[in-house]
Amino acid sequence: MTTQAISEAQLHALADGVLPEEQRAAIDAHLRAHPEDAARVNAWREQNRQLRALFDPVLDEAVPPALRQAALPAAANGAWRRPAMQAAAAIVLLIAGGAGGWLLRGGDGTSASASPLTLARSAAIAHAVYTPEVRHPVEVGAAQEAHLVQWLSKRLGTQLQPPALSPLGYHLIGGRLLPGDGDGPVAQFMYEDGGGKRLTLYVAKERAGRQETAFRYTQEKDLSVFYWIDGQLGYALSASLPKRELGKIADAVYAQLEQAR
Questions:
Q1: Are 166 and 177 in contact (CB under 8 A)?
Q2: pTM of the entire structure?
Q3: Distance between CA atoms of residues 226 and 247, nearest Å
Q4: Each residue's pLDDT tens digit, 42-99
Q5: Residues whose CB is less than 8 angstroms from the CB of residue 53 and which lie 6 or more positions away in sequence, other chains included
Q6: How far apart are CA 124 and CA 69, in angstroms?
Q7: Are the beta carbons of 130 and 190 closer than 8 angstroms?
Q8: How many CA atoms within 13 Å lie on the side-chain side of 252?
Q9: How far apart are CA 3 and CA 30, in angstroms?
Q10: What is the pLDDT of residue 12?
């Protein structure tokens, strides 16, 4: 008797909770025989959990009056005026607000400016997506640190140097190149402590002329983010750590980056 091959799409469907019930027994048997696939499914489930933890609270927030007004088609001479354009604009605004609304609340109660807001939002999403990965958390491992630094520096067009965080209990496990939000690619460096807890440093090239910003802090559930802009680079340090603990690490990162300039 031949056994039907299990596809990656089926594994993703299981992790997402949409696998047809009649396929469940075969998938469960496959996972018992292939622990590496079981680890992948568990990692995807954790990614889903972290993304829901980040963005589900937005569903309970009231829709801003201006957004509700924008979604209403205006009547002109008894006809609907550009309803498709208005609906599309409302959807875009809702997506932008949903993905980043929680980041509008700075740690000091002030509103973040547009560029730091985008930086922190993108860093938080990248952290939630890649830190749960078991087999491929990074593109290039720390064993090839020299190559990693040279590659990412070339792609961002500036010299990068991942901070040494071993005195704080974290060692570099590697990094990856990620798409940016209009200003070119970004770099993500990932660190891990002895207990397997991970933190990420997200580095993005900022537009010329940006003013330097002080540290900003935001938190949603257990994910904390310190972010700042220094010259032409924006930085965001993300981890599931208390504010005080992550703040000490952010201070050390900032000090090392300043010393390397």
A1: no
A2: 0.60
A3: 7
A4: 877 877 777 666 666 655 666 556 555 555 554 444 444 444 444 444 434 443 444 4
A5: 220, 221, 222, 223
A6: 30
A7: yes
A8: 16
A9: 10
A10: 80
Given a contact cutoff of 8 angstroms between Cβ atoms, the answer to whether 34 and 207 are in contact is no
Question: For residue 239, what are its two tokens?
Answer: 């981890």
Partners of residue 216 on adjacent β-strands: 227
| Residue 150 contacts residue 161 (beta carbons within 8 Å) | no
Q: What is the per-residue pLDDT across 150-193, written as a single tens digit (0 to 9) for each?
A: 999 999 999 999 999 999 999 999 999 998 765 678 999 999 99
Q: Tell me the percentage of the chain whose pLDDT exceeds 90.
A: 34
How does DSSP classify residue 176? E
Q: Six-digit token pair at 259? A: 């010393």
Phi, psi angles (nearest 5°) of residue 198: -115, 150
For residues 166 and 160, the answer to whether their CB atoms sit within 8 Å is no
How many helices (H) and strands (E) the chain has is answered by 8, 9
Residue environment code for 100-136, b if the CB has 16+ CB neighbours within 10 A, otherwise e: bbbbeebbeeeebeebbbbbbbbbbbbbbebbbbeee
| DSSP letter (8 states) at residue 105 | B
Comparing CA positions, the residue from 168, 167, 150 lying closest to residue 159 is 150
Q: What is the largest CA-CA distance in the chain?
A: 71
Residue percentage of the chain with pLDDT more than 70: 68
Closest CA to 121 of 225, 8, 241, 250: 225
